[in-house]
Design goal:
There is one protein chain. With about 270 residues, the chain is of the alpha/beta class. The chain has two domains: about 15-165, 3-Layer(aba) Sandwich (Rossmann fold); about 180-270, no CATH class. Helices cover about 40% and strands about 20% of the residues. The protein is built from 14 helices and nine strands. It has helices at about 1-15, 25-30, 35-40, 40-45, 45-55, 70-80, 95-105, 135-140, 145-155, 175, 190-195, 220-225, 230-235, 260-270; strands at about 60-65, 85-90, 110-115, 125-130, 155-165, 205-210, 215-220, 235-240, 245. The chain has a five-stranded parallel sheet. The protein has a two-stranded antiparallel sheet with strand order 6-7. The protein has a two-stranded antiparallel ribbon with strand order 8-9. α6 links the parallel β1 (about 60-65) and β2 (about 85-90). The longest helix has 15 residues, at about 1-15. The termini are far apart.
Length: about 270
């Protein structure tokens, strides 16, 4: 009878404690639990190579700063297991939707959610901090050094800070990188596109946007770009049956304001339809 009780106790633990069993990094990346649309970006974002380079181990305490829609969170939640901990330090813009996502699947059961504006964790308690394509937004919002200071405070001595960010042009100063200082006037559309996406007005563009109904719209030429709305550039939310869904913008990662997006589109139209 004791053996039977022990069996059911172990079984209950396995059922009720997500991520008690380990998954390799490759298994976590190839997991069927991931959002199918997310997996299509693997070929561009290289999650295996990135997390291997950062030396993220499954028993670490890891903080993911501003995980947004949870692209990397889905991988890390499967990969980090007991006694490791994954802490998602989310920004206020994504918090409500992110909490719903974390509540929607048992694989997120051990993810700790804190506010990006909090102290993140106890001092000297974190093995690694990671963040993906967020620094340019924090720079614009004048939050960058504050986030770095909090990250330093919670990292253990010798801890890892892994950052993925857009590549700036050679010899670009941090002042030039700050999007507050960019002005989009007249023919500057050409230079902005060249800087941020690496294409010229006459070339084909490799950009796509996914809508909540699962349709995909691709931009192939500058004419296609000229026919966009500002919301399609900067992103936003759509509401279906009372629930909000995130719509990714073509240039959302560059933190354009609505006025900047409108100006880019107008400049494109001036070039295409002149």
């Amino acid at each position: 009878m004791k053996a039977i009780k022990s069996f059911f106790l172990v079984l209950a633990l396995l059922i009720n404690v997500p991520n008690l069993l380990s998954h390799s990094l490759k298994e976590s990346i190839e997991s069927q639990d991931r959002t199918p649309q997310f997996t299509t970006r693997d070929v561009y974002r290289h999650p295996y190579e990135t997390l291997t380079f950062f030396n993220i181990q499954p028993d670490m305490t890891v903080v993911e700063l501003n995980p947004g829609g949870g692209w990397y969170t889905e991988i890390l939640a499967n990969y980090i297991h007991y006694p490791g901990t994954l802490i998602a330090a989310q920004g206020s813009y994504y918090m409500d939707g992110f909490k719903k996502k974390m509540d929607s699947d048992p694989m997120f059961g051990r993810v700790e959610i804190v506010s990006l504006s909090s102290n993140l964790a106890e001092p000297n308690s974190v093995d690694a901090i990671v963040t993906f394509r967020n620094l340019h937004n924090w720079l614009k919002a004048e939050l960058l050094m504050g986030v770095f200071k909090k990250s330093y405070d919670v990292l253990k001595p010798g801890g890892i800070c892994g950052v993925v960010e857009h590549r700036a042009l050679p010899n670009t100063s941090i002042n030039d990188m700050n999007r507050r200082n960019l002005k989009f006037i007249g023919s500057e559309l050409i230079s902005v596109l060249n800087i941020e996406k690496g294409f010229k007005p006459g070339s084909e563009l490799e950009v796509e946007i996914k809508y909540t109904d699962a349709t995909i719209k691709k931009i192939k030429t500058l004419k296609d770009f000229a026919e966009l709305s500002s919301d399609e550039l900067i992103g936003g939310y759509d509401e279906i049956k009372g629930s909000k869904f995130k719509i990714d913008g073509y240039l959302e990662e560059f933190a354009l304001s609505k006025n900047e997006a409108d100006e880019l589109i107008i400049n494109a139209r001036n070039i295409v339809f002149k």
